[in-house]
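thread: overnight batch results

M.L. [08:02]
morning all. the overnight job finished for the chain we discussed friday. pasting input first so we're all looking at the same thing
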Amino acid sequence: MDVLIEAFVNVTQPLCLLMLVTGVGIGLVVGAVPGIGGIFGLVMVIPFTFQLDPYAAFALLLGLSAVITTSDTIPAVLIGVPGSVGAIATVEDGHPLAQQGQAARALGAAYSASMLGGIFGALVLGLSIPVIRPLILSLQTPDFLAVALIGLIFVAFISGKDPLKGVAALLLGMLLSFVGLDPHSGAERFTFDLVYLWGGIPLAILFLGLFALPEMAALLQRGRVSDHPARIDAQGLWRGVRETLAEWRLVLACSSVGALIGAIPGVGVTVIDWVAYGIARRFHPAGPVYGQGNIAGVIAPESANNAKEGGYLIPTLVLGLPGSATMTILLAAFTVHGLVPGPEMLGKNLPLTYAMVMFLVLANILGTGTCLLLTRHLAALTTIPASRIVPVALVLITLGAFQTNGRLADIVVLCGAGALGVAMKSGGWSRAAFSLGFVLGPTVERYAFLSYKLHGSAMFLRPSLVLAALAILAIIAAWVWQQRREGPRTAAPETGWAGFAALFALALAAVGLLSGLNVTARSFPVLTAVALMVIAGLGLLRGLRAGTRLSLGLPPKPVLITLGLCLTLTGLLYLCGLAAAAAVFTLMTISAAERRFSLSAACVGLVLSGLVVVLFEKITLADWPAGVIWSLFG
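M.L. [08:03]
and the structure it wrote out:
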């Protein structure tokens, strides 16, 4: 009881509540704009959490992630384009209802189902803690190593359509996570004598480039989501709410499915949504034909996809294994704030764990209430052209990266990560698996090092590691059997073998660079590099046998424009300082895209300039270049 009281006291602090409201507001906007997604929103705000205490930081992050699958329903229903993958199943019946003039009814049902599902998922998380806590506290270091290894290989194999690419992406992420000073011996690994890399590749910058920049390039390519604003009436919204309450059994069943399946690491929200949709079709046949406007086809997936957040947090908090790509970003936030998932989150940090449950409940209630009141305004976000969204987002992305260390190298890393993100997205390589490898690489190395120090070679005889080895072999054997059973059609990759060739060369070079280091510093990175060589070699041979040709081309024009705009903003930052750079960049890019100067573009620039000054100067207290122009007059 004392723990719950402490958690409640911290949750109700003014700063925590302010961050929760801010996170909910950002999450609703991000969810309502198709194609951006929760990962984009989380990586955008992580830099702002550096100066916050863990309670305020996770109030912001969980407030954002909890409500994205509430507002992503707006474009799914109104224009048939899901705001995120969590609303794909909702399109099936939500959009037909909108075409029949019942958009408000569908949205009201979706909002209320999302709220009830989110609260249920949070309660599942809270009630599971007392049950799981004794088990986790009894585990030893080798046991956590075993769990981490099983989770890594499991998530890698189910990430994307090609398990081989998933494993390769995971190993690449792990290899890059070893950049910096070895924590055990102090030796330099992959630093190339650059002091900037002694602390490793900055996590926040890497994720901003990997996830945010490719989405901005894709948004530039699309131009605009929709030209038709929606008509929403309050009567229809409340009708949908009443129908959700009347279908409480369906809500309970689908929320249970969302929370339970969400607790399995690596199972995506799309799977959860379609399972819930299938339950509705099987056990709730009443009403119109599914796919033609059955309200149960909206209620079922919406209750499941919000309940999953509580389920996702169970393996993330307890085992350090993220339940989804967004939880990988949340796991990165744990690292930033010096928190270690596992026994610590169920021991000395137990009040913070219960506070997260409360944040989820409050975020879902606040998000639903906001959507019911402001749906008309949120719906207007779907009609904003990319020429207005992209410049504003790029200012926040670039400045968020730069404020990490305040060095030009931050922008170089951002653009490099952006190029990598675009290549992975276009080539079908799992960025979620890469992120998981990057976040958990040092953790797995630490568990392996400590296990060997404590138990010696006897660690390999512990039941948990033996079972882990058998589980990994079983997963690999199942994949090999599937490949042989389905034949050459499955074996032939959708893209050429250039990616596998590049990974093989990179892994080979990594082994060479590590050869001069001591055994402690090089052992785990060498094992990772050798494993990457084996996987890349298999992919290379598969591509050659399938007859796929090597094809190299220039990046798409929107990608080059996006990277060029980041560099342009950085140049303006050094030239005229923070506030002026944001205003000038926004006005310049909007005017160039729309081929005319407009007063509204100038207003956007001025408002954004004031916003970045508050966020990056007053709140984060970072040092910014004064600007060459101002120094000449100063």
